[in-house]
Amino acid sequence: MTVRVMLVDDQMLLRTGFRMVLAAQPDMEVVAEAGDGVEALEVLRHTKVDVILMDVRMPHLDGVETTRRICGGGQQEDAPKVLILTTFDLDEYAFSALKAGASGFMLKDVPPSELLAAIRAVQSGDAVVAPSTTRRLLDRFTPMLPATGAEPVRPELGRLTEREREVLLLVAQGLSNGEIAAQLVLSEATVKTHVGRILTKLELRDRVQAVVLAYETGLVRAGGGASA
């Protein structure tokens, strides 16, 4: 199946570079481009897209608000998947974009092989935020979140078993399934099952949203530690 990709970036040269990389893939096709969020939303009204590579800083309508309108905060299951493209050191809005429903984020200088793998992963329903990148992202952006008390403020967290809560804490600290399995002395398949149940119980789309929730509710602190 061909993955239909849309490029949204106000820099034409960047779009051209991404388009050349994607055009060389037999399973991908760039079906649309836009220079800002307003244009992107208009194009999406009459173009079927699977994955959107979305810049953050654009004129007229930035990538965060555009992502929110496309994904509905992550609640619109039939919406295109959004991959945020960020320079990381400059884009303080990347975290907000994840909250808005993006399936992950990547650096603009990402190697082509990683970009292609990320597009395929997102199309298959996975979130693309590498564990090491998750740690760096959250260390940088969690100070932007509102302060919370020691106790979680979202009642849905009460649905989790003690083990599921333990797994959620480790997911929020940026650990992969394999790392969680090693730390808890479980099989990787068991950890994957726990993660799936956590997402179902908390009505979350993917582990990106689980990470955001854990920090917003005070389950973990900025810097990756569990709250007292």
Describe the 3D structure.
The protein is α/β, with parallel strands linked by helices and 228 residues long. It is built from 10 helices and 5 strands; from the N terminus they run βαβαβαβαβαααααα. The protein has a 5-stranded parallel β-sheet with strand order 2-1-3-4-5, sandwiched between helices. β4 (81-86), α4 (94-100) and β5 (104-107) form a beta-alpha-beta unit. α2 packs parallel to α3 (63-71) and α8 packs across α9. It starts with a strand and ends in a 12-residue tail after the last helix.
Indicate the mean pLDDT. 81
The largest sheet, given as strand count, sense and whether it forms a barrel, is: 5 strands, parallel
Radius of gyration over all CA atoms, rounded: 18 Å
Low-confidence stretches: 146-152
Strand arrangement in the largest pleated sheet:
2-1-3-4-5
User: Structural class, from helix and strand content?
Assistant: alpha/beta
Strand content: 5-15%
User: Helix count, per DSSP?
Assistant: 10
Task: Please bin the fraction of helical residues.
Answer: 40-55%
Per DSSP E runs of 2 or more residues, the count of β-strands stands at 5
N- to C-terminal separation?
48 Å
Order of SSEs: EHEHEHEHEHHHHHH
